[in-house]
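Example (one chain per record):
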Amino acid sequence: MWNWPRQIKDSITQKTTGLMRMQFWRDAVEGIYCDNPPHQPIATELWRAVKRHNLTKMWFMKIIDEREKNLDDRAYRNIQELEKYAENTQSALLYLTLETLGVRDVHADHAASHIGKAQGIVTCLRATPYHCTRQKVFLPMDICMLHGVSQEDFIRGKQEKNVRDVIYDIASQAHIHLEHVALDDYLCNVRKVDFNIFHPSLQRKSTLLPLHLYVRSWKKTY
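Predicted structure:
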Protein backbone atom coordinates (compact mmCIF):
# COMPACT_ATOMS: atom_id res chain seq x y z
CA MET A 1 0.00 0.00 0.00
CA TRP A 2 2.89 2.39 0.73
CA ASN A 3 4.36 2.02 -2.78
CA TRP A 4 1.71 3.95 -4.71
CA PRO A 5 3.90 7.04 -5.43
CA ARG A 6 6.81 4.91 -6.69
CA GLN A 7 4.55 3.00 -9.06
CA ILE A 8 3.48 6.24 -10.73
CA LYS A 9 6.94 6.84 -12.23
CA ASP A 10 7.16 3.24 -13.43
CA SER A 11 3.80 3.40 -15.21
CA ILE A 12 4.01 6.70 -17.13
CA THR A 13 5.71 7.83 -20.32
CA GLN A 14 5.13 11.58 -19.93
CA LYS A 15 6.03 13.78 -16.96
CA THR A 16 2.75 15.71 -17.24
CA THR A 17 0.78 12.54 -16.55
CA GLY A 18 2.94 11.85 -13.51
CA LEU A 19 2.42 15.36 -12.16
CA MET A 20 -1.35 14.97 -12.47
CA ARG A 21 -1.28 11.68 -10.56
CA MET A 22 0.94 13.14 -7.86
CA GLN A 23 -1.49 16.02 -7.47
CA PHE A 24 -4.33 13.52 -7.12
CA TRP A 25 -2.54 11.88 -4.20
CA ARG A 26 -1.65 15.21 -2.66
CA ASP A 27 -5.32 16.16 -2.74
CA ALA A 28 -6.24 12.67 -1.50
CA VAL A 29 -4.01 13.02 1.57
CA GLU A 30 -5.52 16.44 2.29
CA GLY A 31 -8.96 14.85 2.05
CA ILE A 32 -7.95 11.95 4.27
CA TYR A 33 -6.94 14.31 7.07
CA CYS A 34 -10.24 16.16 6.67
CA ASP A 35 -12.15 12.87 6.99
CA ASN A 36 -13.15 13.13 3.34
CA PRO A 37 -11.07 10.56 1.42
CA PRO A 38 -11.72 10.03 -2.30
CA HIS A 39 -13.61 6.92 -3.35
CA GLN A 40 -10.49 4.97 -4.22
CA PRO A 41 -9.44 1.67 -2.57
CA ILE A 42 -5.92 2.69 -1.56
CA ALA A 43 -7.09 6.09 -0.31
CA THR A 44 -9.78 4.38 1.76
CA GLU A 45 -7.23 2.05 3.38
CA LEU A 46 -4.90 4.97 4.06
CA TRP A 47 -7.74 6.86 5.72
CA ARG A 48 -8.47 3.87 7.95
CA ALA A 49 -4.78 3.54 8.86
CA VAL A 50 -4.52 7.26 9.65
CA LYS A 51 -7.58 7.08 11.90
CA ARG A 52 -6.46 3.89 13.63
CA HIS A 53 -2.82 4.81 14.22
CA ASN A 54 -2.83 8.63 14.17
CA LEU A 55 -0.23 8.71 11.40
CA THR A 56 1.69 11.91 10.73
CA LYS A 57 0.57 13.80 7.63
CA MET A 58 4.02 15.31 7.04
CA TRP A 59 5.57 11.95 6.12
CA PHE A 60 2.98 11.35 3.38
CA MET A 61 3.58 14.81 1.94
CA LYS A 62 7.35 14.36 1.98
CA ILE A 63 7.00 11.10 0.05
CA ILE A 64 4.75 12.71 -2.57
CA ASP A 65 6.89 15.84 -2.93
CA GLU A 66 10.12 13.87 -3.30
CA ARG A 67 8.64 11.38 -5.76
CA GLU A 68 7.33 14.30 -7.80
CA LYS A 69 10.82 15.83 -8.02
CA ASN A 70 12.13 12.43 -9.10
CA LEU A 71 9.90 12.43 -12.18
CA ASP A 72 12.59 14.48 -13.96
CA ASP A 73 14.51 11.26 -14.71
CA ARG A 74 17.96 12.77 -14.16
CA ALA A 75 21.01 11.51 -12.31
CA TYR A 76 21.59 12.64 -8.75
CA ARG A 77 24.08 15.50 -8.66
CA ASN A 78 25.86 14.11 -5.60
CA ILE A 79 25.55 11.48 -2.89
CA GLN A 80 23.88 14.01 -0.58
CA GLU A 81 21.04 14.47 -3.07
CA LEU A 82 20.55 10.70 -3.21
CA GLU A 83 20.53 10.54 0.59
CA LYS A 84 17.96 13.33 0.78
CA TYR A 85 15.73 11.45 -1.67
CA ALA A 86 16.12 8.27 0.40
CA GLU A 87 15.38 10.13 3.65
CA ASN A 88 12.17 11.65 2.28
CA THR A 89 10.94 8.39 0.76
CA GLN A 90 12.39 5.22 2.32
CA SER A 91 12.97 6.70 5.79
CA ALA A 92 9.57 8.41 5.73
CA LEU A 93 7.97 5.01 5.04
CA LEU A 94 9.82 3.56 8.02
CA TYR A 95 8.64 6.42 10.25
CA LEU A 96 5.06 5.62 9.22
CA THR A 97 5.67 1.92 9.82
CA LEU A 98 6.95 2.66 13.32
CA GLU A 99 3.87 4.78 14.02
CA THR A 100 1.67 1.95 12.74
CA LEU A 101 3.39 -0.35 15.25
CA GLY A 102 2.85 2.15 18.04
CA VAL A 103 6.55 3.02 18.31
CA ARG A 104 7.25 6.72 18.83
CA ASP A 105 10.81 6.90 20.03
CA VAL A 106 13.65 9.24 19.03
CA HIS A 107 16.19 6.38 18.99
CA ALA A 108 13.96 4.28 16.75
CA ASP A 109 13.52 7.27 14.42
CA HIS A 110 17.30 7.75 14.35
CA ALA A 111 17.79 4.12 13.33
CA ALA A 112 14.99 4.38 10.76
CA SER A 113 16.65 7.44 9.22
CA HIS A 114 19.93 5.60 8.65
CA ILE A 115 18.26 2.38 7.52
CA GLY A 116 16.10 4.32 5.05
CA LYS A 117 19.12 6.13 3.60
CA ALA A 118 21.03 2.87 3.28
CA GLN A 119 18.03 1.21 1.67
CA GLY A 120 17.65 4.07 -0.80
CA ILE A 121 21.31 3.91 -1.80
CA VAL A 122 21.22 0.12 -2.20
CA THR A 123 18.02 0.35 -4.24
CA CYS A 124 19.73 2.83 -6.57
CA LEU A 125 22.66 0.44 -7.00
CA ARG A 126 20.50 -2.64 -7.50
CA ALA A 127 18.38 -0.88 -10.12
CA THR A 128 21.37 0.33 -12.14
CA PRO A 129 21.59 -2.68 -14.53
CA TYR A 130 17.86 -2.36 -15.29
CA HIS A 131 18.10 1.40 -15.82
CA CYS A 132 21.08 0.92 -18.11
CA THR A 133 18.99 -1.29 -20.40
CA ARG A 134 16.73 1.76 -20.76
CA GLN A 135 19.70 4.03 -21.52
CA LYS A 136 19.43 5.76 -18.14
CA VAL A 137 21.89 6.17 -15.26
CA PHE A 138 20.95 7.74 -11.93
CA LEU A 139 24.16 7.22 -9.96
CA PRO A 140 25.57 10.36 -8.27
CA MET A 141 27.44 12.41 -10.86
CA ASP A 142 30.07 13.72 -8.44
CA ILE A 143 31.35 10.22 -7.67
CA CYS A 144 31.29 9.24 -11.35
CA MET A 145 33.28 12.35 -12.26
CA LEU A 146 35.74 11.70 -9.43
CA HIS A 147 36.69 8.39 -11.05
CA GLY A 148 36.45 9.61 -14.64
CA VAL A 149 33.43 7.44 -15.44
CA SER A 150 30.69 8.50 -17.86
CA GLN A 151 27.07 7.41 -18.01
CA GLU A 152 27.91 5.75 -21.32
CA ASP A 153 30.41 3.50 -19.52
CA PHE A 154 27.59 2.09 -17.39
CA ILE A 155 25.18 1.82 -20.31
CA ARG A 156 27.77 -0.21 -22.23
CA GLY A 157 28.25 -2.46 -19.21
CA LYS A 158 31.94 -1.71 -18.75
CA GLN A 159 33.60 -3.38 -15.77
CA GLU A 160 36.93 -1.56 -15.53
CA LYS A 161 38.36 -0.74 -12.12
CA ASN A 162 37.24 2.90 -12.19
CA VAL A 163 33.67 1.79 -12.83
CA ARG A 164 33.86 -0.62 -9.91
CA ASP A 165 35.38 2.14 -7.78
CA VAL A 166 32.25 4.23 -8.32
CA ILE A 167 30.09 1.37 -7.03
CA TYR A 168 32.47 0.81 -4.10
CA ASP A 169 32.25 4.46 -3.00
CA ILE A 170 28.46 4.52 -3.21
CA ALA A 171 28.09 1.16 -1.45
CA SER A 172 30.47 2.34 1.27
CA GLN A 173 28.16 5.25 2.03
CA ALA A 174 25.26 2.83 2.51
CA HIS A 175 27.46 0.73 4.81
CA ILE A 176 28.24 3.78 6.92
CA HIS A 177 24.52 4.30 7.56
CA LEU A 178 24.05 0.67 8.56
CA GLU A 179 26.92 1.00 11.02
CA HIS A 180 25.02 3.82 12.73
CA VAL A 181 22.18 1.44 13.54
CA ALA A 182 24.42 -0.55 15.88
CA LEU A 183 26.19 2.56 17.16
CA ASP A 184 24.62 2.49 20.63
CA ASP A 185 25.96 -1.03 21.27
CA TYR A 186 29.43 0.08 20.20
CA LEU A 187 29.37 3.10 22.52
CA CYS A 188 28.34 0.88 25.43
CA ASN A 189 31.26 -1.43 24.71
CA VAL A 190 33.68 1.50 24.51
CA ARG A 191 32.51 2.66 27.89
CA LYS A 192 33.00 -0.84 29.38
CA VAL A 193 36.70 -0.76 28.43
CA ASP A 194 37.15 2.78 29.77
CA PHE A 195 37.15 4.30 26.29
CA ASN A 196 40.25 2.38 25.19
CA ILE A 197 39.48 2.36 21.49
CA PHE A 198 42.31 -0.12 20.83
CA HIS A 199 40.93 -2.76 23.21
CA PRO A 200 40.77 -6.17 21.47
CA SER A 201 37.12 -6.65 22.43
CA LEU A 202 36.14 -3.72 20.22
CA GLN A 203 37.67 -5.35 17.16
CA ARG A 204 35.33 -8.35 17.31
CA LYS A 205 31.89 -8.39 15.78
CA SER A 206 29.08 -9.00 18.22
CA THR A 207 27.66 -12.46 17.56
CA LEU A 208 24.79 -11.58 19.91
CA LEU A 209 23.70 -8.51 17.94
CA PRO A 210 20.75 -10.30 16.23
CA LEU A 211 19.56 -11.46 19.65
CA HIS A 212 19.94 -7.96 21.12
CA LEU A 213 17.94 -6.48 18.25
CA TYR A 214 15.20 -9.08 18.75
CA VAL A 215 15.00 -8.35 22.48
CA ARG A 216 14.85 -4.62 21.84
CA SER A 217 12.11 -5.17 19.28
CA TRP A 218 10.15 -7.27 21.78
CA LYS A 219 10.59 -4.68 24.54
CA LYS A 220 10.00 -1.80 22.07
CA THR A 221 13.26 -0.15 23.13
CA TYR A 222 15.73 1.10 20.55
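Caption: The CA atoms of residues 189 and 195 lie 8 Å apart.
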